[in-house]
Write a structure and sequence with these properties.
With 394 residues, the protein is of the alpha/beta class. Helix 2 packs across helix 12 (271-282), helix 9 crosses helix 10 and helix 9 (239-246) crosses helix 14 (308-324). A nine-stranded mixed beta sheet has the order 1-2-3-5-4-6-7-8-9, with helices on both faces. Helix 4 (116-120) links the parallel strand 4 and strand 5 (133-138). It has 17 helices and nine strands.
Length: 394
């Protein structure tokens, strides 16, 4: 790790010209013809993206997002050659448990803003002060306000080491970790590395599921449904994954040149989230906190920071690391593990699979609403799950 340990306050202040240039580029978009099907099977639908672009260029206010971010304690610190951006909100309650939460792709710290209040001050929302957390929300290297890595090797294992260093620098000697999507991979790696002070982990995406799950001769109904979901994802839903795993630089040219191309790329993730986002723009029906403004906040963050390509490279890094480690046994996660499965996720992870992945599974729950962006869509429910998962570790 770097010897540089300074933690510096940070504020967001994007130039007016960058915002004006964004609007000019949206207006200059060269649009394809309409898709030839009535669903998303050919990709992001023209009507959805046209309405998003119209709203983005005419009604959307990035400065409101800046103000929301700047109302929070934000910092940067250099770790292992990368300037890491993070939000650090301390609870007003004594003995709050420190918690580091890692976002994923195509999300960012934007998807986690709604959980700050419920996690740091549960008493203000009808909960117990004993369930409060001190919250650390870092931006992944190459995402948003964190700088781009200048060398290869920034896979989730290296990020996990950086997060342990970050918590150490903040003076935390005991803490827990949570993540979904790429954040789940980082949190899983933290559990396997078991740095000093880490008490337990919680995730809301089962990595073993995306890797194929645990097929058996006589799968249960839940296991069969999960296997079917994996098959659907692999045959019709993982185009972005293949491209970012293998050729991130190629897609990066479009992501840095055209805001509409970047928006389309980010929307084309999972079926449940896509249709929820589409309804928010076309029908004015947001799903929970997955509103038009919050969706465009997230896309604009990537655009104004120019991190579409560097974020995509993180997938290549993880694929490369997995190939280099092929055939090697990974350390077991011996720490307590919590897991929540949300119904709109790419797959609903069966408890049997979670137990095979994490023999020390101490908390498992399947909730009745929410999807891949559960923290974003249902922040109160998401916070409730985190509090329940870590309650025994306080």
């Amino acid at each position: 790790m770097s010897n540089e340990t300074e933690t510096r306050p940070f504020r967001v202040d994007m130039p007016d010209e960058a915002i004006a240039d964004l609007r000019r580029r949206i207006a200059a978009t060269r649009w394809p013809s309409k898709e030839l099907v009535a669903d998303r099977s050919q990709g992001v639908q023209l009507a959805t993206l046209r309405e998003l672009a119209r709203y983005w260029a005419t009604d959307y206010d990035w400065r409101a997002c800046e103000a929301k971010l700047n109302a929070l304690p934000q910092f940067k610190t250099e770790i292992d050659g990368v300037d890491i951006h993070f939000i650090h909100v301390k609870s007003r309650h004594e003995n709050a448990l420190p918690l580091i939460v890692t976002h994923g792709w195509p999300g960012s710290i934007i998807e986690l803003l709604g959980v700050i209040g419920p996690l740091t001050d549960p008493a203000a929302r009808g909960g117990s002060a004993e369930d409060a957390f001190d919250l650390v929300l870092p931006s992944l290297p190459g995402y948003g306000f964190s700088s781009e890595p200048a060398d290869v090797g920034w896979n989730v294992g290296r990020v996990a080491e950086a997060w342990a260093e970050l918590m150490h620098r903040l003076g935390y000697t005991r803490y827990v970790a949570q993540g979904g999507d790429v954040g789940a991979a980082v949190t899983d790696a933290m559990g396997r590395q078991a740095p000093a002070g880490l008490l337990g982990i919680h995730m809301n995406l089962l990595l073993a599921g995306l890797a194929g799950g645990y097929p058996s001769a006589e799968p249960s109904g839940e296991e069969r449904a999960a296997l079917d979901a994996i098959a659907t994802f692999r045959t019709s839903g993982n185009g972005y994954l293949i491209e970012q795993d293998t050729r991130p630089q190629t897609i990066g040219y479009a992501l840095l040149d055209s805001p509409v191309a970047q928006a389309a790329w980010m929307l084309d993730h999972d079926t449940d989230s896509y249709y929820k986002i589409s309804r928010a723009f076309l029908d004015g029906q947001p799903s929970g906190h997955l509103t038009r403004d919050r969706i465009v906040d997230n896309i604009t963050l990537y655009w104004l920071t120019g991190t579409g390509a560097s974020a995509a490279r993180s997938y290549w890094e993880n694929t490369r690391a997995a190939a280099l480690a092929a055939g090697q046994a990974r350390p077991e996660v011996k720490l307590p593990v919590g897991f929540t499965t949300f119904p709109g996720e790419i797959l609903r992870a069966p408890r049997s699979w979670a137990e095979k992945s994490y023999p020390n599974l101490v908390y498992f729950n399947e909730v009745d609403k929410g999807g891949h962006f559960a923290a974003w869509e249902e922040p109160q429910l998401f916070a409730t799950e985190i509090r329940a998962a870590f309650r025994s570790l306080r």
